[in-house]
């Protein structure tokens, strides 16, 4: 079985590269609250349980479960911002929007999604100019094999 997870290389569970886009979306959401386009109570009640594990945390869970063996496990760091991978803030935010919008639109409503992600793109562009944006995406590739029962 081959599994690919979003992950992190750092031991720090709140590493910038793991949660940067959620922080940008939070800043954009706060801005729309200040403009009266999103109800503040809806912002405060939004809970997105998102976690990027480390390679060691995944290995620990596999070992603890004890029905699989790890044939291969490694991290792959995809550099963001280069010519071949999300070169613009617009493309980077479109990628993030592709999986975050269903969660966020359910909370805030479809009618503000374009404004929300446009503001997030603007924040991302400003961060990129200042060098404050996330620089890589970490994938953890794992090849597992079922243990033989004797």
From TrEMBL:
Q: Looking at the keywords, is Metal-binding present? A: yes
What molecular function terms (GO) are annotated for this protein? metal ion binding; methyltransferase activity
GO BP terms, alphabetized: methylation
The entry's keywords: Magnesium, Metal-binding, Methyltransferase, Transferase
Which Pfam families does the record associate with it?
Methyltransf_7
Q: Which InterPro entries match?
A: MeTrfase_7, MeTrfase_capping, SAM-dependent_MTases_sf
The cross-references to PANTHER family, in alphabetical order and at most eight, read: S-ADENOSYL-L-METHIONINE:CARBOXYL METHYLTRANSFERASE FAMILY PROTEIN
Q: What is this protein called?
A: SAM dependent carboxyl methyltransferase
